[in-house]
Amino acid sequence: MKAPLPTNKETVLTHENQDIMLFKKRIKNLSNTLLALVFSNVLYQPVLARDFMDERVEFSGFARIVAGYLDEEAASFEGYDDNISLSEQSLLGLQADIHLTDTLTVATQLLAHSSEERKSGIEWLYLNYEPDQYWRIKAGKLRTPFLQYSDVLDVGFAYSWISPPQQLYSSYLFSNFDGLSVTHRNTFADLNIDIEAYWGTYDDSVFVGGDEVNIEVDEILGLIFQVQHDNLQVRAAYAESNEFFADFLGLEDLAVVLERAGFQQSADSLRFDGSANSYQVGVRYDDLDYFASAEWFRIEADLLVVPSVDGYYLTAGINLLPFQLHLTYASAAPEYAVSQNEIPRGIAPQLDQLALGYDQVIDSLPSDSLDSYTLGARWNMRANLAFKVEFTRLVGDRDARSFFDVADNAQFDRRANLYQVAVEWVF
């Protein structure tokens, strides 16, 4: 159940907020309306519909079946525990590209996921306009391009791992948004250069530590610069999320109590009402014989309950066609900007309890500090079918959550091994 917004946001609805709400509604309805017009004109005329489907519609898809096992009884990691599970990352995706004209396309992707922490349904739905070879404009429900593999994260066939490093590709990064994207592509000397800018909003939920959390972001701004020369690719990205609101159960209730008691600073520190910025730099070199890549990602927020996080990975591998071997090291270290407890102690029992409750909340904030070492192998059985195996050694901080869901804290030292096998298919 969504917690109420702060009182001033309920009572003061500015013209700017009205414009944002109107834009969000228009973006969500835009693609649906266009699709409805297309199909209403052709599907009730069989011959026209058949010609339209043959000439204007392209279908593609992907699927993956992933089995995993964690050799730890006292905790689970990304849904995996000491029982073999096929439901955490297995999925089926179908994509349709409807070419309305030579320059205008409707693209949609439907995703069926077996995980309880992932919603099935429409993953993409947008209009794509490419007036020439240099420009591309997209509007609708888009993939959020925070990271190097964000666009293909569900298509396991597109990368070497079974599970991309959790330190960067964590589920708390919302995977899509409603908005606009403009990309300019050009060449300079031997360089292929892409510059993309995007803007939009987000109003949905993500899973954090097994809990579903509602998130509202009234403004997402991003800029991506990517350059490629022969087999070398470099990508840098910046994104900011403004008017950020998240609903964590219990925190808003405590914030209201603190506010009524006159501790406004402490109350504000518990609210997900502010902004967050992210920075990304990635480099990849891919050759017929070997490959190497690295990526760094940083999140900064002016919210106490959202830590600043630095995460990165280094990976390298060799291609022994049709086989591939790879090794990856990844690490992440969060840091909270904890403010001093302003609630006085020793004056009244009620204030002592309030101060204790505030300290307990601060102490319970999740800290996902984790190092991981992954060894994997891939066999390209066919041009569109791959078999993978992967072993990951997980080493977290003893006093941190480290992306684990801990059932028995006393018996778990934040060390565990994750074993996975997968079949990846594109069609």
From TrEMBL:
Protein name stated in the entry: Porin
SUPFAM superfamilies: Porins
